[in-house]
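Posting this for the archive.
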Amino acid sequence: MPQPVTLTSTRVTLSVPAEADIDRIAEVCADPAIARWTTVPSPYRREHAVGFVTKVVPDGWASGRVCTWAVRADGVLVGMVSIGDIRERQGEIGYWMAPEARGRGHMSEAVRLAVDYGFGAAPNGLALTRMVWRALVGNAASAAVARRTGFRWEGVVPQGAEQRGERLDEWRGTLLRDDPRSPADGWPHSTFVHTEP
């Protein structure tokens, strides 16, 4: 099983969320955009953050199914990134970013670190061969990060996502271990434009 690991680049550090992060996570996850585009509980309360930090995150690492990191810039938690649904050498990238940190390139940098770790050879990586990106249709900000990281556009899956008991259409992309980690062509115009359902 993978052991919790800290990943660093010039501007961001990825480390496992700790109990000291609970209040900050609760604060950020109250943002309406995070509730709109992710599966976090809504309304988000402090007890959700407690369960996430003390149960969900450690259980994910211990099972080898989900690796979760807090994204920190200048020592401040500004987001979260994970590789989830790890099985048969495949994983799914997921992420959210605090409102005040958006548009600065921090998440693209964090996702690159996570992707490099996911594709890295064991024991210093997960030895994945394929990574999947999924987002609700209309989430252009998530699409921009995936596109910049090299994910290739796969298409729209009608009602492919489940969010709080509702089936919703989703976008999907894929990145293979040997794919270039540069912005990918072939993404439709709709993924560049923020839309509301």
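The beta strands are 7-8, 13-15, 67-73, 76-87, 90-97, 130-136, 152-163, 166-176. The chain is about 30% helix and 30% strand.
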